[in-house]
Amino acid sequence: MKTFEQFAGGVKTVPAGTSWYLADLGEARGRQELFTRQAPQKLKVLREHALIESAVSSNRIEGVEVDRRRVKAVVLGKSFLQDRDEEEVRGYRLALDRIHAQGKRLSVTEKTLCDLHRLARGDIWDAGKYKSKDGDIIERYPNGRQRVRFKPVSAALTAECMAHLVSLWDQCLEKRWVHPLIALAAFNLDFLCIHPFRDGNGRVSRLLLLLQSYHLGFEAGRYISLERLIETNKDRYYETLETSSHGWHEGKHDPWPYVNYLLFILKSACREFVSRVGETKSPRGTKTEFVKAAVRSLESPFTLADLVNKCPHVSQDMVRNVLRNMQKDGDVECVGRGPAALWHRKGNTS
Hints:
Distance between the termini: 43 Å
Strand order of the largest sheet: 1-2
Oligomer: single chain
CATH topology of the largest domain: Fic-like fold
CATH class of the largest domain: Mainly Alpha
CATH architecture of the largest domain: Orthogonal Bundle
């Protein structure tokens, strides 16, 4: 709530970069309705892929993974769940279902936040309940060293701070202290600094990003996984979050790095949505375009395993076939043989 309290006192200037993002997103929102009227079957395929990617990526950021051979069955099917990780991925899917089904009709309240946490955590013992003990956010390094990245709000003050945060969200939208998209990012930052739950705060923050974007009329997250984009830009996520949380408790923090990061994610989703709808010739070609887009997003060189991990909803055989076709077209080349072979992009891979 410290970010909202800053904004309530008056925002004298908005960084130029933020203004550019807002202008681009305003234009994207205007084009959104046009594209959502096109090819409903195309959009249905995009929705299914986004659902799978979101459930997998949001949990993978937190170190929760499932066997890629079971991803589709876990996320979309009714198969028996084999372990705790699969329960959490399935639970995140259920939380996404609720947001997609209700959209802006699902109010941003403490109850909604707790319900989303309960679903995303798979009904674990403290799912849907605020933390009962204090705990720092610790960063651990491969060499065993660790450091305190941030000290969240104490457990004793969490309920009070969350009630205040939800109230400030409503007030900000009503009184227009800042642009609503800036308010969306401010809520996300304040939520993560309060850190209301023992575990699962990152996942709930990403669910809130989707829900609040619905409230503001941006529906690209229905078709393009915001979570995948965040995972792809994970280093920047942690960097801007740490930068913007410094001095948060005293209200002396700089929220703009994190604000700009989330606006960048939303802009990327809108741009990818337009690109996917425009370039996909038919539902049958959608998976091919996903693999090609993944190739464009990977640093060169990459391995087949790198590409397969980027496309959890596409079979390994199909990923291989797309790569072979791209190789025939001269878009990529392969150096080496077997699983360790390295793939290099050549020129334009569109």
